[in-house]
């Protein structure tokens, strides 16, 4: 597909205002994805923001062939693709797995679209680039900069119901610790589901409130017809840059404190915490094994182990693993080899995914799946969908999931408190 491409200067200090206008301009479209880095410094990220607006065709499917179709489509067209893979796509990648809980939000298992218009700002750039298959970039730019930003309105007061109450949550942690003691697994990611029926919200206003309260490097606003995701994720799942594959799993969480000295003490304690380091290193080993399936022998390296990164509500322990992807294989094999991401499953992977379906009471759907882009050159960047709200406008069903990694050393009460800490920003905007 031929795209017209042009760049437009951004006045000093106007980046945030321009992002808001881009989002507001895209609202009439039924398919769009906005990815926001929120000015986080990183040697890996290429874009400060990306907006994919409208659709020139979709790649979707509820079979294991969908990833192959995605690779074939890209090879033929060499164009932008944006989209998602839900957690439950695991069932098509591994015959032993299934999902026993009902679908609520309704995102398809895998869906990518070729956008009519792509707008982006590269990291450190003062230029908005517009690539369009249908309209002159200058016309699109004029529409964006002349779009009015409506005044932010208060969010409705909503109360979420917890699918698993505190008593049952603590009991389940005890049962999972017993599985670990019995040798069934080493670590398992266990999550709770919270929901609100009959929720009437403005999804864009909700995203902007969440993105303001909890800015994150993998924030995303996604609309697919009547289904919406408002995401404040701090975690990268997988990136491909030329022949290099990079994974950055998060395992290890500690709260922030308003007192700077105490906050620094909490941060240092997280870096030295034996339990948190054990959780992290288990997932690093798992990701090394996953990437070894699609990377050249001997190319896997751990570039950073136990890095501590600070976000508005929490400190996180993040490690970076990379490898050189094998020649002459589809780039989607890197996803096939490692999905779902180990930070949201545990180890050993297949067994813990079976336990997750057994002990969690709700289908994860898009939560702990991934969303992102594939560039015309075949590079990609995908996040881990956490710290996110999901909304079906037709059924007015609003929900989120939060949880954490359970090891034998886990304290059930502390696990409950960590789960609630991660939910704070998601609920705070409605109170």
Detailed description of the structure:
The protein has 431 residues and is of the alpha+beta class. It has one domain (4-428): Anthranilate synthase, CATH 3.60.120. Helix content is 30%, strand content 31%. It has helices spanning 15-26, 66-77, 90-93, 137-145, 166-181, 203-213, 260-272, 274-292, 333-338, 349-359, 412-428, and strands at residues 4-9, 31-36, 47-53, 58-60, 81-85, 110-113, 117-122, 127-132, 161-162, 187-196, 218-224, 227-233, 236-241, 244-248, 250-255, 301-310, 314-324, 346-347, 370-374, 380-383, 388-392, 397-406. A hairpin with a 4-residue loop joins strand 7 (117-122) and strand 8 (127-132). The longest helix has 19 residues, at 274-292.
Q: Would you spell out the secondary-structure blueprint of this structure?
A:
Elements: E1 4-9, H1 15-26, E2 31-36, E3 47-53, E4 58-60, H2 66-77, E5 81-85, H3 90-93, E6 110-113, E7 117-122, E8 127-132, H4 137-145, E9 161-162, H5 166-181, E10 187-196, H6 203-213, E11 218-224, E12 227-233, E13 236-241, E14 244-248, E15 250-255, H7 260-272, H8 274-292, E16 301-310, E17 314-324, H9 333-338, E18 346-347, H10 349-359, E19 370-374, E20 380-383, E21 388-392, E22 397-406, H11 412-428
Antiparallel strand pairs: 1-8, 2-3, 2-11, 3-7, 4-6, 5-6, 5-19, 7-8, 9-10, 10-18, 10-22, 11-12, 12-21, 13-14, 13-20, 14-17, 15-17, 16-17, 19-20, 21-22
């Amino acid at each position: 597909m031929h795209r017209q491409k042009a760049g437009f200067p951004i006045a000093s200090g106007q980046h945030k205002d321009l992002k808001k206008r881009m989002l507001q301009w895209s609202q009439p479209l039924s398919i769009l994805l906005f990815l926001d880095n929120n000015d986080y410094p990183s040697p890996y990220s290429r874009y400060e923001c990306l907006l994919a607006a409208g659709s020139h065709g979709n790649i979707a499917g509820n079979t294991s062939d969908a990833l192959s179709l995605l690779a074939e489509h890209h090879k033929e067209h060499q164009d932008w693709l944006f989209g998602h893979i839900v957690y439950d796509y695991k069932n098509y990648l591994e015959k032993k797995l299934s999902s026993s809980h009902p679908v609520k939000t309704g995102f398809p298992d895998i869906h990518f679209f070729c956008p009519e218009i792509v707008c982006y700002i590269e990291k450190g750039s003062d230029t908005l680039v517009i690539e369009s298959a249908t309209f002159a970039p200058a016309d699109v730019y004029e529409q964006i900069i002349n779009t009015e930003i409506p005044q932010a309105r208060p969010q409705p007061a909503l109360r979420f119901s917890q699918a698993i109450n505190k008593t049952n949550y603590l009991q389940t942690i005890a049962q999972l610790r017993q599985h670990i003691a019995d040798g069934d697994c080493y670590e398992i990611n266990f999550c709770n589901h919270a929901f609100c029926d009959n929720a009437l919200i403005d999804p864009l206003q909700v995203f902007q409130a969440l993105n303001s309260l909890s800015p994150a490097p993998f924030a995303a606003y996604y609309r697919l017809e009547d289904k919406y995701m408002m995401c404040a994720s701090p975690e990268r799942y997988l990136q491909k840059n030329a022949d290099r594959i990079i994974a950055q799993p998060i395992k290890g969480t500690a709260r922030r404190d308003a007192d700077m000295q105490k906050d620094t003490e909490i941060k240092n304690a997280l870096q030295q915490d034996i339990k948190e380091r054990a959780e992290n290193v288990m997932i690093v080993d798992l990701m090394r094994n996953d990437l070894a399936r699609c990377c050249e022998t001997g190319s896997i390296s751990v570039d950073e182990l136990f890095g501590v990164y600070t976000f508005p509500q929490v400190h996180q322990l993040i490690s970076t693993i990379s490898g050189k992807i094998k020649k002459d294989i589809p780039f989607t094999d890197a996803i096939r080899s490692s999905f779902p991401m180990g930070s949201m499953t545990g180890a050993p992977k297949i067994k813990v995914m079976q336990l997750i379906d057994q002990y969690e009471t709700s289908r994860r759907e898009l939560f702990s799946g991934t969303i992102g882009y594939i560039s015309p050159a075949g590079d990609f960047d995908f996040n881990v969908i956490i710290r996110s709200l999901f909304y079906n406008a037709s059924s007015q069903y609003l929900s989120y999931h939060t949880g954490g990694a359970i090891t034998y050393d886990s304290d059930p009460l502390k696990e409950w408190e960590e789960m609630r800490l991660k939910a704070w920003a998601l609920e705070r905007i409605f109170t």
